[in-house]
Amino acid sequence: MTKCVGLCTDGAREMCSRNSSVIVKFRKINPNVTRMHCNIHREALVSKSLSDDFRSVLNTSVKLVNFIKARPLQSRLFEKLCKEMGSNHKSLLLHTEVRWLSRGKVLTRLVELREEVTYYLDEKNDYVKFLRDEKFILKLTYLADIFSKLNELNLYLQGLGEDIFSVHNKIRAYMKKLLLWKNNIENKMFDCFESFSNFIIENQIEVDSIITYISDH
Prior knowledge:
- The protein has helices at 13-16, 22-29, 39-46, 52-69, 72-84, 102-112, 114-120, 128-131, 134-156, 164-186, 194-203, 208-216, and strands at residues 6-9, 34-37.
- The chain is mainly alpha-helical.
- InterPro entries: RNaseH-like_sf (IPR012337).
- This is Ribonuclease H-like domain.
């Protein structure tokens, strides 16, 4: 421990509090150790920032998934339907807030099974109206794409042999990509977001109203 020069934490009280945290105990052995906040955790915190409009889409999507996935009978019936329709997937994924990759995976799976979910839900179910709303699906496909890209970055930042320099370089490169994607969206070039682009092409939708939301995000 006396040879350690830096300690990286996620900001939790057990790690960083003034009196009895890991940092305090570590510095009793090595007073010169420096502390930094984990870059991956900081990036994950930043990615939680959403406008009320996008947050509403995310929350509705999670509730929709929970309606099917959290009930054993509903889940089994939905799995049977997916098998009969020859779907690539047989179930939705539950959202878990503490897992960094959860949002991207949950939304991507919902987009991929959108037709099956719409077919499965009864006409009387309140969630059907969202899956038939073009603006809602546009926002859903965009969120699925952007969170999938954030997941790729999260995985890219981890692993053996990574140091603070390589992590900073990867984050700076990603920030430049964000500027490129923002510019492309404003010029109505949507190839950078695959699910979003496919939905627009398949349904020949005008997207002027949502471009500003995406650009701001």
